[in-house]
Fold this protein.
Amino acid sequence: MKDDFFSTFTFMQIGFEAKRIFQNTTGLGNYARNLVDGLCTYAPNHQYHLFAPKQTSLFPIEKYSQVSLHVPKGFIYQHNKAYWRSRGVSNEIKKMSLDVYHGLSFELPRGLEKIAIAKMVSVHDLIFERFPEQYNPIDVWISRNKTKHACIIADCIATMSIQTKQDLVDIYHISPDKITITYPCCDASFLQKQPADILQQIKIKYHLPDQFFLSVGSIIERKGLMKICEAMHILQAPIPLVVIGKGNNAYAKKVRAYIHEKKMTDKIIFLNEHPAASSHDFTSSKDFPAIYQLAFALIYPSLFEGFGIPVLEGISSGIPVISSRTSSMPEAGGKGALYINPSDEHEIAHAMSQLLNDSALNLQLIRHGQQHAQEFTKEKMARQMIDLYTSFV
């Protein structure tokens, strides 16, 4: 529900680096889409300009009268869109009357420092600095240079957690006065109780068991799927684990080998391999709120996150959550999760056993989680950003 807060601000022209709005179906894309949708919904009196290499169906701009799309024009930029993003966008902004330009994911274009507008960048995490061995060295070098450049020229850096703010201070030596924490939201559909008939349709569509633990995230070492599988084996869990996530790297192969060796193939269900996972409703995450709400509990033992959106999605969905006591996960889960050492499969197994055997604990976690989720609404996200933009205009 809108209030007078948003009507007190002078009209602004706000630009966004928007590649991931149109091309990323997961975390960074969801963050950017939720932000722009929230701003259009709760602060519709401003004009929003999206600078993106191309338009796709991921974000239907025709729904928003306040949104303008800017794509590469001219032979050079159309055939070198990376160059347009890194330098050409600044040439376009020079010709416009923007009040603010916001890089939604780690970067600001070269040349923007010479233009007299407010400059903001969202830095979601510095995981590539903390775990460089899990990335291609060239990708680490590119990410480091883009992020450092953006942090230097920005008037303000927005982070999604206390953890990322501290990392910017410790690793890049950024003044904490330049950094503001602006919490994200998850899609409002996770907060809405799905009707029983929809839940039944989704259960049938994906052949889901009556009860299951849920794991969500790319199958990479940092996300901890192996530790969940080891905990499942220790516990001899009476219900299976449903995994949403892809991975075809050495770590993913190691996980699958372990599952085969321990004869757990009937206990670990890779939902991305189900025929229905090729549908738009799965690839766009439309079916995810129902899948979450069908789950017994979410297990998310990531070693490190800039925020941990699946934790927020879990507590918003009204299910218990097991997550790590490291980095930003306690910020995301509040009192709605059991926190464990993500490197200790025995501790994970113990937490799973607690949930399986203590219904009162489950209800307590669900109640606390849904209360905590109210701190991360789309309206609050829009309110934080509009307030921040105005402070620099």
